[in-house]
Amino acid sequence: xxxxxxxxxxxxDPPTNGHIDLIERASRIFDKVIILIMVNIQKSYTxxxxxRVEMLNNIFKKRKFKNVSVDVYKGLLVDYxxxxxxxxxxRGLRAVSDFEYEFQMVLTNRKMFDRMETIYLMPDVRxxxxxxxxxxxxxxxxxxxxDFVPSEIVSTIRRKFKQ
Length: 163
Known about the structure:
Elements: E1 5-10, H1 17-29, E2 32-39, H2 49-62, E3 68-74, H3 77-83, E4 88-92, H4 96-112, E5 117-121, H5 132-140, H6 154-162
Parallel strand pairs: 1-2, 2-3, 4-5
């Protein structure tokens, strides 16, 4: 029987409890979850790709998730899917405002790769307002981020903003 594998693309700059909520839930639905750190040369990131990979690996190694892995890709998501013979993508919808962007993206991606299927999960209500940008803003001003990101990476984020 073929494994059901889902790809969860994003920048994860940094990972938040909202991201982790979706990944943990997806890991119960799918045989394998690939967290795909997408690199967009037009975006500037706070954390390097290596730092984001390390943060995600630390989170899921400590929590002993056997079916979650991290990968990195510079390019179009559809090209990654085709190259790896995958076609299921996980996306999160926090609010109605996310829907318009996600709708545009799924239709564009489907035009380029008609076998692509996108699954949307809503985060737990505790995380519907949460974004990586918000976490970075709080951390930048020395605020307490411990309620917003996994405990495994709080010190990593704090160190980054003290530099």
